[in-house]
Design a protein that fits this description.
Chain lengths: ~625, ~375
C-alpha cells in the first residue's frame, strides 16, 4: 500500500516538476514577448532573476514544510514545487537542477542574443544599456546558441551552466578584442561590443586627429604636393567668402531674387542656342559681343539691334576705352539707368533702394569695378591665347553700347519720370562707383518684369550685371576658377599644341566650372592628357552624356581631380550625320555605361567601347529617343 | 577524371534580393562565378525625354520616382540646378527645411539599406527594427509634405509647405531616440560573427579602382577617399554644420557597412544642429516668377545623395521647359563595378556584394 502511495507520489512529483519547468519557461518566454516594447524591455532580465530567486525561496520553504500538506493544485505556476515530498533532500536536488537549468538558459541566451536573463551572481555586462534590443535575434553565433542550449538540457546542468558562463565571458572578451583590432585599424570603426564607449572615445580622438591633419592638407585625400596646400587655402578662402556672402545677404534687408535671376551666359552656349533658333549670323554677332561675359544679350536683342550693329561696335570701342580708364560704369550706368528708369519709375524706386542697400554693404562697389576690368583683362588674355584679340576688344565694350541702345529703345517706349530717376542715379553715382550699376541693373530687370514686350531685351541686358550686383563675391572678381582655366589652357597648349581647343571659358551658370571645348579630332588625346598629366590629373569622371543640338551632337564630360580638387567640363561636338567618337572607357571605366546610354538614347557611336549596347531600351528598339527628330516607331501604325 | 561544365544562371529580373527589377546573367563553374552580366533598363521610364516637354516644376514629381528611397535629395538636385542657373538666393527657413528633409531622408534611406541588406544575408529581425524607425521618419516627412515617399516637396526657390506646428520639436525628439536605437543596432548586428564572416573582405576594391569606376558615396569613401560633396563642395547651407566625412579604408562590404552606419550618426548631427538653428520665422519661398525659366545656357550641379553623387545637367534655351535634362544617377554609375567584383567570387557572395553597393533600380534605369 505504502509502496503504491510512494509510486503515486513520485509520479505526481515528476509531473509537477515538469509542469513547473514548463511554467518557468513559459514565463520567461512571456517575459521576452513583453520585453518588446522599448519601455518594458529593460525590466525583463531583472524580472526573470527575481522570479528565479522567488522560486527558489518558495521551494525551499515548501521543502521545509513539505510534510505538512499536499497541495492538489500542485501543477500551477510557482506552486510546482509544493509537493509533499517525504524526502527534502530529494526535493533540494530537483530544485538545484531546476535552478541550474534556468541559469544555463539565462546564461546561454545573453550570449546568443543579448537576452538579459542572468543570475544575480553573474557579473553585469553592459547589456542593460541595450535591453531595448534584448530580443532573440541572431547575434553572436547561432552555433554557440545551439551548443549552449544542448548543454543546458544535458544531465549535468549545473556544470553546463558554469561552462556556458565561462564561454560567454571568453567570447565577449575575444569579440571585444577583435573589435578593438578593427578599431585600431580603422580609427573610427564602429563599436562592436559592450566596451563601446571606450572605442568610441578612441575612435573620436582618432577622427579628430585625422581631421586636423586633413584640414592642414586640404580636403584632397592623397598626394601631398605643394599644389594641394595652396589649393587648400584657396578652398578655405572660397568657403569663407561664401559664408561672408551669405551673411551679407542675410543682413541686407530686402531680398529680390529676381534681380539676379538672369545670370551671365557663356558665349559658346549662347552661340549654339542661337544657331538652334536659326539666327546664326545675328546670334554670332551677339555672341561675339557677349564674349566679354558681361552682357549676354539674347537673340531677340541681337535681332533688334542687328541694323545698328556696326555703329554699336564703334561705340563699343569708345566706351570700352572709357571704361578702361576708370569706373566707366558711371557714365554708362547713368545713361542706361536714366533710360530704363524712365521706363518704369515705380519699379526703379524699389530697385534703387535695393541697389543702395547693396552699395552700402561696401567693398562690393569697387570690387565690381575691378571685376569688370579684371574680367576684361583675363578674357582678353585667354582670348589672345586662344585666337581673337580683335574679337575680345569688340566684346569688351560691345555690351555697353548694346545695353545703351536697348535702354534707349525702352526709353523711347516709356519716357516717364526720367528726371527723378536721373537725379537718383546721379546721387547714387556719387555714393559709390558701383551703385549705379546695380541700380541700373535692378531697374533694367524691374522694367523687364513690368513690361512683357521689353522683358526679353531688358533681361538680357540686365542679366550680365544683375548677378554681380546681388552676389558680390561670386562675380566681383574674375571667377575664382579663372586661374585654373588659364592653367589648363596653358598646359594643354604647351603639350598638345594650339589646335586642340575650340573654345575655353568659365561657365558662370554652372558654378563657374572651367569649360573646355575640344575639337573632335583631339578629343581622346585631350582626355588622355587631362587624366595623365601631372598638373591636371583628372582622375574621376563624374558624368558623361550627350545632347542633340539639332545641327550637331554634343558630348558633355564632367571631370574631377581628387588630387587638385578641381573640376573641368569637357565638351565636344559630334557630327550629327556620322556621330562617332572614341570611347573614354580605356581611361575611365566609369564611362562605360554612360557611353552605352548615350549610344542607346542618342545614337552616338563610341569606337573602341568594350561593350556598346542598348543599355536601357533593349536591342530591338528602333530609333534614338533623345534625338530631337525622334518619331516613336509603332508596328501597328 | 571529373568532367566540369560551365552553367548559365539567370538571376532576376524578379528576384527579391535585387530590390527591384534587375537581372544578372551569371556564368558559373560549380560555385564560382566566371562572369556576371548585368541587364538593366526594366524600369526605364524615359524621364529625361518626358522632361523636355515639362515645365521645371512639373519635373519635380518625376524625380521622386528615381531614387524613391530618398526622394528629397532628388527633389533638391533639380531645384538646385535651376536655382544655380537663375542665381536665386533661397530664404533661410526654406534652406533649413530642405536640409532637415534631406538628412531625415538620408537616415531613412540608410535604414532601409541596413534592414534589407541584413535580410538579404539571412537576418530577418533587423529589417523590422529598421523599418520601425524608418516609419517614424516617413511620418515626419509625411507631415511635412503630405506624402510618404514621393514627396514632391521642394520647388525652385524654396519648399512647397512650411513645417506644421510642433514639427521641429518632433524632429528634435527623434534625434536622441534614433541614436539610442542605433546603438542597439550595433549590439544586434555589428560584430556578429556570422555577419562579419559574410562581409569582411568580401567585394573588395581599391581606392584607384573606385575612382576609376566613378563610384561615389559610401562606395567611394569605404576605400579611403575623403570626399563628401556636402563638405567639399558645400551647397545649400551645409557649411554651417559641423559633421565629419565618414571614411574607411577597407574597401570591402564591411567598410561600406561601417560607412553607412556612421553616416546615420553624422546625419543626426546635422539634423540636431539644423533643428537648433531653425529660424522661428521667415519665408519658405524666394520670389520667383510664376513661370520659371532657366536662363539660356547650361549647368551641371552635383550633390551628395545617400547613394552617392547625384547630378543634374540642364541645357536651357531660356524657355520654361529644359532643352535637355540629364540626371547623373549614382546607382547607375555605382553598379558598373559589379561584374568586376563578382568575377571569381563564390555564388553565395553575389547577394552580399550586390547589396553592399546599395542600388535603387528606379535610379539605375532612370
Amino acid at each position: 500500500m505504502s509502496g503504491e502511495k510512494d509510486l503515486e507520489l513520485a509520479k505526481k512529483k515528476a509531473a509537477a516538476a515538469a509542469k513547473a519547468k514548463a511554467a518557468a519557461l513559459a514565463k520567461m518566454k512571456a517575459g521576452k514577448k513583453d520585453s518588446q516594447p522599448p519601455s518594458e524591455r529593460s525590466t525583463d532580465p531583472i524580472e526573470i532573476e527575481v522570479e528565479l530567486a522567488q522560486q527558489k525561496a518558495e521551494a525551499l520553504a515548501e521543502a521545509k514544510n513539505a510534510p505538512q500538506g499536499f497541495e492538489p493544485e500542485a501543477g500551477k505556476e510557482e506552486t510546482g514545487n509544493d509537493l509533499p515530498l517525504p524526502n527534502p533532500a530529494h526535493l533540494e536536488l530537483e530544485l538545484a537542477k531546476q535552478k541550474a537549468a534556468a541559469a544555463a538558459r539565462a546564461k546561454a541566451e545573453p550570449l546568443a542574443d543579448n537576452q538579459g536573463g542572468r543570475t544575480a551572481s553573474e557579473p553585469l555586462l553592459e547589456i542593460e544599456r541595450f535591453n531595448e534590443f534584448s530580443k532573440p535575434l541572431p547575434n553572436q553565433s547561432f552555433a554557440d546558441m545551439e551548443l549552449a542550449k544542448q548543454k543546458a538540457s544535458a544531465a549535468a546542468r549545473a556544470k553546463a551552466a558554469a561552462m556556458a558562463q565561462e564561454m560567454a565571458a571568453a567570447q565577449t572578451v575575444s569579440l571585444s578584442r577583435e573589435s578593438q583590432q578593427d578599431t585600431n585599424k580603422n580609427p573610427a570603426s564602429l563599436p562592436t561590443t559592450s566596451a563601446h564607449t571606450e572605442f568610441d572615445l578612441e575612435a573620436r580622438k582618432a577622427i579628430k586627429a585625422k581631421a586636423a591633419e586633413l584640414a592642414a592638407k586640404s580636403s584632397t585625400f592623397y598626394l601631398e604636393d605643394d599644389n594641394t596646400k595652396a589649393l587648400a587655402t584657396e578652398k578655405e578662402t572660397a568657403s569663407a567668402e561664401l559664408k561672408s556672402k551669405r551673411a551679407a545677404m542675410a543682413s541686407s534687408a530686402a531680398e529680390h531674387p529676381e534681380q539676379k535671376s538672369e545670370p551671365i551666359m557663356s558665349k559658346k552656349a549662347a552661340e549654339e542656342f542661337s544657331q538652334l533658333s536659326e539666327e546664326d549670323e545675328k546670334a554670332k554677332a551677339a555672341a561675339l559681343a557677349k564674349q566679354g561675359g558681361e552682357a549676354p544679350e539674347g537673340d531677340e536683342k541681337a535681332k533688334a539691334i542687328a541694323v545698328a550693329k556696326a555703329k554699336a561696335a564703334a561705340a563699343a570701342k569708345a566706351k570700352a576705352a572709357a571704361l578702361a580708364k576708370q569706373g566707366g560704369e558711371a557714365p554708362e550706368g547713368d545713361e542706361k539707368a536714366k533710360a530704363i528708369a524712365a521706363a518704369k519709375a515705380k519699379a526703379a524706386a524699389a530697385a534703387k533702394a535695393k541697389a543702395a542697400a547693396l552699395a552700402k554693404q561696401g567693398g562690393e562697389a569697387p570690387e565690381g569695378d575691378e571685376k569688370a576690368k579684371a574680367i576684361a583683362a583675363a578674357k582678353a588674355k585667354a582670348a589672345a591665347a586662344a585666337k581673337a584679340k580683335a574679337a575680345a576688344l569688340a566684346k569688351q565694350g560691345g555690351e555697353a553700347p548694346e545695353g545703351d541702345e536697348k535702354a534707349k529703345a525702352i526709353a523711347a517706349a516709356k519716357a516717364k519720370a526720367a528726371a527723378a530717376a536721373k537725379a537718383k542715379a546721379a546721387a547714387l553715382v556719387k555714393q559709390d562707383g558701383e551703385a549705379p550699376e546695380g541700380d541700373e541693373k535692378a531697374k533694367a530687370i524691374a522694367a523687364a518684369k513690368a513690361k512683357a514686350a521689353a522683358a526679353a531685351k531688358a533681361k538680357a541686358a540686365g542679366a550680365g550685371k544683375a548677378r554681380p550686383a546681388v552676389e558680390p563675391p561670386a562675380d566681383s572678381k574674375p571667377s575664382p576658377n579663372q586661374k585654373f582655366l588659364d592653367k589648363y589652357i596653358k598646359v594643354i597648349e604647351e603639350n598638345l599644341g594650339t589646335d586642340i581647343l575650340a573654345a575655353a571659358y568659365i561657365n558662370p551658370l554652372s558654378k563657374d566650372v572651367p569649360t573646355l571645348e575640344v575639337k573632335v579630332s583631339a578629343y581622346y588625346r585631350t582626355a588622355e592628357f587631362l587624366k595623365y598629366n601631372e598638373q591636371l590629373a583628372f582622375d574621376y569622371l563624374s558624368e558623361l552624356h550627350g545632347t542633340d543640338f539639332g545641327s550637331h551632337f554634343e558630348v558633355y564630360v564632367h571631370l574631377y581631380s581628387y588630387r587638385n580638387s578641381q573640376s573641368a567640363a569637357v565638351k565636344v561636338r559630334v557630327d550629327r550625320e556620322n556621330p562617332v567618337l572614341p570611347s573614354l572607357v580605356p581611361l575611365w571605366q566609369g564611362a562605360n555605361w554612360p557611353e552605352s546610354e548615350a549610344y542607346d538614347l542618342l545614337g552616338i557611336q563610341f569606337s573602341n567601347h568594350p561593350d556598346l549596347k542598348r543599355i536601357m531600351l533593349g536591342e530591338g528598339w528602333i530609333g534614338h529617343p533623345l534625338r530631337k527628330d525622334y518619331e516613336p516607331y509603332d508596328v501597328e501604325v | 577524371m571529373i568532367r566540369t561544365e560551365e552553367m548559365l544562371l539567370n538571376v532576376g529580373p524578379q528576384h527579391p534580393s535585387t530590390h527591384g527589377v534587375f537581372r544578372l546573367v551569371v556564368k558559373i563553374d560549380g560555385e564560382i562565378i566566371k562572369e556576371a552580366t548585368p541587364v538593366i533598363g526594366y524600369l526605364h521610364r524615359g524621364t529625361e525625354k518626358l522632361a523636355e516637354d515639362l515645365q521645371y516644376t512639373q519635373i519635380i514629381p518625376y524625380t521622386d520616382r528615381m531614387d524613391y528611397l530618398s526622394a528629397m535629395t532628388n527633389n533638391y538636385v533639380i531645384c538646385h540646378a535651376v536655382e544655380t542657373m537663375m542665381g536665386l538666393e533661397i530664404p533661410e527657413r526654406a534652406e533649413y527645411l530642405r536640409v532637415l528633409a534631406m538628412e531625415l531622408g538620408r537616415v531613412a534611406s540608410h535604414l532601409v539599406w541596413w534592414g534589407t541588406y541584413l535580410l538579404d544575408i539571412g537576418a530577418v529581425s533587423p529589417f523590422l527594427y529598421a523599418f520601425r524607425e524608418r516609419e517614424m521618419i516617413i511620418n515626419l516627412l509625411n507631415e511635412l509634405s503630405g506624402a510618404r515617399l514621393t514627396f514632391n516637396y521642394m520647388r525652385v526657390g524654396g519648399v512647397k509647405w512650411d513645417a506644421p506646428e510642433g514639427w521641429i520639436d518632433k524632429v528634435r525628439e527623434f534625434v536622441p531616440y534614433m541614436r539610442q536605437q542605433l546603438e542597439g543596432y550595433h549590439r544586434l548586428v555589428t560584430g556578429n560573427e556570422i555577419f562579419m564572416k559574410r562581409v569582411k573582405g568580401i567585394g573588395t576594391y581599391t581606392k584607384e579602382e573606385a575612382i576609376n569606376y566613378s563610384l561615389s558615396g559610401a562606395n567611394l569613401r569605404c576605400t579611403g577617399v575623403n570626399w563628401d560633396l556636402r563638405k567639399d563642395e558645400p551647397y545649400s547651407i551645409y557649411d554651417r554644420f559641423s559633421f565629419d566625412t565618414v571614411v574607411r579604408t577597407g574597401g570591402d562590404a564591411w567598410a561600406r557597412y561601417e560607412c553607412r552606419m556612421q553616416e546615420i550618426v553624422e546625419s543626426l548631427k546635422i539634423i540636431e544642429q539644423a533643428a537648433a538653428q531653425f529660424p522661428a520665422e521667415g519665408s519658405i519661398m524666394a520670389k520667383v516668377p510664376k513661370i520659371i525659366k532657366a536662363p539660356k545656357g547650361e549647368a551641371y550641379v552635383r550633390i551628395e545623395s545617400p547613394r552617392g553623387e547625384i547630378g543634374c545637367y540642364i541645357a536651357s534655351e531660356g524657355k520654361k521647359e529644359p532643352y535637355r535634362l540629364k540626371f547623373r544617377r549614382p546607382s547607375f554609375y555605382n553598379l558598373q563595378i559589379l561584374p568586376k567584383l563578382l568575377k571569381g567570387e563564390n555564388m553565395a557572395n553575389l547577394i552580399t556584394i550586390l547589396g553592399a553597393i546599395d542600388i535603387v533600380l528606379g535610379e539605375v534605369d532612370g
